[in-house]
Specification:
mainly alpha, Arc Repressor Mutant, subunit A, 3-stranded antiparallel β-sheet
Length: about 160
């Protein structure tokens, strides 16, 4: 006779998993961003690469990849497409030919300004967080950083 399977405790139910909440929120963000980015001809990863360059222009591919949590071999095709679209320029670093530097073009800067004015506020509104938006964003960053530090502590 087999033992009946017990229902999971409340803490083991999927809606209680923080990792699932973050994962499913990421999927929801993707659904909200997709139609907007489709109109601009961008993927989400291309968009965040442009935003990172808007924060600090003229970065090496490696430094940009570190900020985006992407390996160079993943980031390079994204940057090539952005270059073909006229939003970024890639060039060898004159001080170290092994390094490729990336910077925004005027069209890339204009696209980010357009996004900031026309689209960004609508996406922030879609979160429904109101004045709590900055606080939640900071807490999610803290969560990510804590998780990454825990990996470093294991080494």
């Amino acid at each position: 006779m087999s033992t009946p399977i017990k229902a999971p405790s409340d803490s083991r139910k999927l809606p209680k998993f923080l990792c699932f909440a973050v994962y499913s929120a990421n999927l929801a963000f993707g659904r909200v961003y997709k139609p907007v980015l489709d109109q601009l001809g961008l993927t989400y990863t291309q968009y965040i690469a442009l935003v990172a360059l808007g924060d600090e222009d003229d970065q090496t591919v490696g430094a940009l990849g570190d900020k985006l949590f992407l390996e160079s071999n993943t980031l390079t095709p994204i940057l090539k497409k952005l270059e073909v679209s006229g939003y970024v320029e890639r060039r060898r670093d004159p001080a170290d030919e092994r390094q490729v530097r990336v910077c925004l073009t005027e069209a890339g800067r204009h696209l980010l300004q357009r996004f900031d004015k026309e689209i960004g506020p609508l996406l922030i509104q879609a979160t429904g967080l109101g004045d709590d938006f900055p606080k939640v964003q900071e807490e999610v960053v803290e969560l990510r950083d804590n998780l990454l530090r825990s990996l470093d502590a294991e080494k």
